């Protein structure tokens, strides 16, 4: 089975540079006396696994109140957030019908908008039945939202500041990210056909999916997903594919790449990674591992996620690129708490 490099190991690797770059610690004061028997120190964490804590009023309440007033016209029944932290901001976005209603669009105007597909890079695993590809993404239409509306919506996520107070490049980025969240989701539609064909390797430049990925000799095919999208426009399903021209996952340790494209979508390209049963898989967060997000400070985490450009954390991107080039048969899985809708803007 493929081994996984744990999150702690990643931190250990990334913190090595920081540790060695830090100044020498101040010598501790030595107190002479009789040796003391070790004492048990209670955990500072007050854990009550069977009890639900009532959250304290503060940042989350204020933002929730702002959302309720600003998005009231969208008709969205946003949930109450019961915990603090950036991940809880990214919940309960309005559905497509609510966005259409708030913008005053009619059916003909919506029909005229091009269909777009957020086709996330698929992962494929090997089973007794062959290769199974996890197709995952969202079908939507991008409304022509005014700058004024985008400013008001973006301000929800900019705690202690506003779009009007940001530099031009950050204001533009905040509007773009906000526009990618408030879209018209296309529910109960077929995501097909999806075309697959061999993808060229990126050589020794350090591939996003991992080093050692190869271009298969086949794999050309067209498939249809078995289910329509959910009411939120999402699709997420493993689909068996034809293995003609593809190496069996239990007979190779090389990662194979396939281009995927959803027909009829103005945007819908991605790369599928066929990961065999042996090799090395790195599972890593993006926030505060590869980029500075400060997700532990909500106001800064939101500003960095929505408005500021990508700033690498130390030299971690270089370390990962080196691993991708130098470690054979390596595959990378990346995690983030930001909404799926902002994947394209977030990864640029």
Provide keyphrases for this structure.
348 residues, nine-stranded mixed β-sheet, disordered N terminus, alpha+beta, 19% strand, three-stranded parallel β-sheet, flat
Structure, described:
With 348 residues, the protein is α+β, with helices and mostly antiparallel strands. The chain has one domain (55-347). Helix content is 26%, strand content 19%. The chain has helices spanning 7-21, 59-70, 96-103, 107-112, 147-155, 168-181, 298-306, 316-326, 343-347, and strands spanning 3-5, 115-119, 123-127, 130-141, 184-185, 194-198, 221-223, 234-240, 256-262, 269-274, 280-285, 330-335. Strands 2, 3, 4, 5, 6, 7, 8, 9 and 10 form a nine-stranded mixed sheet that branches. Strand 3 (123-127) and strand 4 form a beta hairpin. Helix 5 crosses helix 6. The longest helix is centred in the N-terminal third of the chain and has 15 residues, at 7-21.
Topology at a glance:
Blueprint: E1 3-5, H1 7-21, H2 59-70, H3 96-103, H4 107-112, E2 115-119, E3 123-127, E4 130-141, H5 147-155, H6 168-181, E5 184-185, E6 194-198, E7 221-223, E8 234-240, E9 256-262, E10 269-274, E11 280-285, H7 298-306, H8 316-326, E12 330-335, H9 343-347
Parallel strand pairs: 1-11, 3-10, 11-12
Antiparallel strand pairs: 2-4, 3-4, 4-5, 4-8, 6-7, 6-9, 9-10
First-residue to last-residue Cα separation: 32 Å
The gyration radius over C-alpha positions equals: 24 Å
Number of helices: 9
Relative helix content:
25-40%
The shape, in one word, is: flat
Q: Poorly predicted ranges (pLDDT <50, ≥5 residues)?
A: 3-87
The strand count comes to 12
For the record, the count of structural domains works out to 1
By secondary-structure content and strand pairing, the structural class works out as: alpha+beta
What kind of sheet is the major sheet? Answer: 9 strands, mixed
The mean pLDDT is 74
Instruction: List the helices and strands in order.
Output: EHHHHEEEHHEEEEEEEHHEH
Question: What portion of the residues fall into strands of 2 or more residues?
Answer: 15-25%
């Amino acid at each position: 089975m493929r081994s996984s490099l744990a999150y702690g190991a990643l931190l250990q690797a990334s913190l090595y540079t920081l540790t060695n770059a830090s100044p020498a610690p101040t010598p501790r004061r030595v107190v002479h006396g009789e040796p003391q028997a070790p004492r048990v120190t209670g955990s500072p964490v007050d854990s009550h696994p069977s009890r639900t804590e009532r959250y304290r009023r503060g940042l989350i309440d204020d933002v929730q109140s702002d959302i309720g007033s600003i998005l009231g016209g969208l008709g969205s029944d946003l949930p109450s957030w019961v915990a603090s932290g950036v991940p809880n901001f990214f919940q309960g976005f309005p559905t497509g019908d609510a966005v259409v209603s708030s913008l005053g669009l009619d059916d003909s105007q919506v029909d005229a908008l091009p269909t777009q597909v957020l086709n996330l890079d698929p992962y494929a695993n090997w089973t007794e039945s062959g290769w199974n590809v996890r197709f995952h993404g969202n079908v939507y239409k991008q409304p022509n939202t005014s700058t004024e509306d985008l400013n008001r919506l973006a301000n929800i996520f900019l705690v202690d500041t506003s779009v009007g107070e940001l530099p031009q490049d950050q204001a533009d980025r905040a509007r773009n990210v906000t526009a990618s969240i408030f879209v018209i989701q296309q529910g109960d539609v077929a995501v097909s056909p999806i075309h697959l064909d061999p993808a060229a390797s990126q050589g020794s430049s350090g591939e996003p999916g991992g080093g050692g990925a190869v271009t298969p000799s086949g794999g050309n095919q067209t498939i249809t997903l078995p289910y329509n999208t959910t009411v939120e426009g999402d699709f997420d399903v493993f689909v068996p594919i034809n293995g003609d021209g593809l190496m069996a996952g239990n007979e190779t340790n090389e990662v194979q790449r396939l281009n995927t494209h959803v027909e009829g979508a103005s945007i819908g390209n991605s790369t599928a990674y066929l990961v065999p049963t042996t090799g090395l898989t790195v599972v890593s967060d993006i926030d505060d591992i590869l980029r500075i997000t400060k997700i532990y400070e909500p106001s800064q985490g939101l500003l960095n996620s929505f408005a500021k450009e990508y700033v690498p954390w130390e030299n971690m991107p270089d370390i990962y690129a080196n691993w991708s080039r130098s470690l054979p048969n390596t595959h990378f899985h990346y995690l983030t708490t930001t909404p799926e809708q902002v994947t394209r803007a977030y990864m640029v």
